[in-house]
Amino acid sequence: MASISICQEPRVERDRLWMLRKLEVDCTHVREPRLFDTFQAAPNLRIIDIADWGRPWHDIGQFPLLPWRQLQQVAFTGDVRDSLELLRLSPNLLVFKLTTDSDSDSLVGWNHIRHAFLRELAIDADNRGSSDFFGALTLPALVSLSYSGEEFPRDGITSMVNRSDISQSLDVFSLTLETIYEGVVPSIASKDIVEFL
Questions:
Q1: Digit-coded pLDDT (tens) for 69-113
Q2: For 170, which of 15, 16, 71, 134 is 20 to 30 Å away at the CA?
Q3: Beta carbons of 143 and 164 less than 8 angstroms apart
Q4: How many domains does the structure of the chain reveal?
Q5: Contact, 30 vs 56, CB < 8 A?
């Protein structure tokens, strides 16, 4: 499998793009989003690992021009609002992994997303308020859900599971609660987990 890892401005030989299946990009150091136009001509690109700790793309009003529609797997590190836009741009996605530290309470008024093919969703949220993120999604094909964060967004996950009608088809649910402050371990009532299951 051909892959490219980019930490600075990409320099790619166009005649070799047909072999590219995986792309790793740290957008924090890429100053010009148009540099990604090159990858529109990568017909076999299926996997992208993309990080952006800079200014959120939705604030700039421009997302990297990548062949989003042909992607099957995206690992994204960045703003939660950008992650929802990536899901909207990538209707054939099967696997989505999000690492974010932005608050999902900024999703008020955000358009709801129904993603018909997503099978695996993994969220690592270093913030509170992830319920709003799950409230913005309907995922009828989801079979694996992984969540890692400081609190259990029970209401948001429960509402997404019910809305997506996947309570019988969700095969894997993984929950990891992280330490909030040094020495402070999060707690969760066992009834919250039992009620969720």
A1: 999 999 999 888 889 989 999 999 999 999 988 765 566 666 789
A2: 71
A3: no
A4: 1
A5: no
Domain limits at 67?
A: 3-195
One-letter amino acid identity for 26? D
The phi and psi torsions of 157 (rounded to 5 degrees) equal: -65, -45
Q: Are 78 and 58 in contact (CB under 8 A)?
A: no
Contacts (Cβ under 8 Å, ≥6 apart) of 9: 29, 30, 31, 32, 35
Tokens (6 digits) for 56: 């959120």
Angle among Cα 130, 92, 127 to the nearest 5 degrees reads 15
CATH number assigned to the domain comprising residue 83: 3.80.10
Tell me if residue 25 falls in helix, strand or coil.
Answer: strand
Q: Are 47 and 22 in contact (CB under 8 A)?
A: yes
